[in-house]
Amino acid sequence: MLLLSEAFTNATLYASDGPVHLAASLTEGSLRIEVVDPGGRCDPALTPLPPDDAEGGRGLALLDLIAKEWGWERLTDRRVRVWFTLLW
């Protein structure tokens, strides 16, 4: 839930106005979540962690620390897909 919340929040904060789509696929032993947004002016970037008292700036760092794998891609229509995989 934490990683889904972070990916979805980033999509709503940094993308242009428009719908945000969520997809999930479950296979034996793994769960893949994809969040697709309309795209924005900048690409997702893993940055250094902010100061301890900062209210944001940890979303992609959490994906990097917790997910088995994650990534992002800009689609041909300029939308952005952020995805991550969890194992169980």
Automatic annotation (TrEMBL):
The keyword Lipoprotein does not apply. It holds the Pfam family HATPase_c_2. It comes from the Bacteria. Residues 2-85 form the Histidine kinase/HSP90-like ATPase domain. It comes from Actinocorallia longicatena. Keywords: Kinase, Serine/threonine-protein kinase, Transferase. The keyword Transferase applies. This is Histidine kinase/HSP90-like ATPase domain-containing protein.
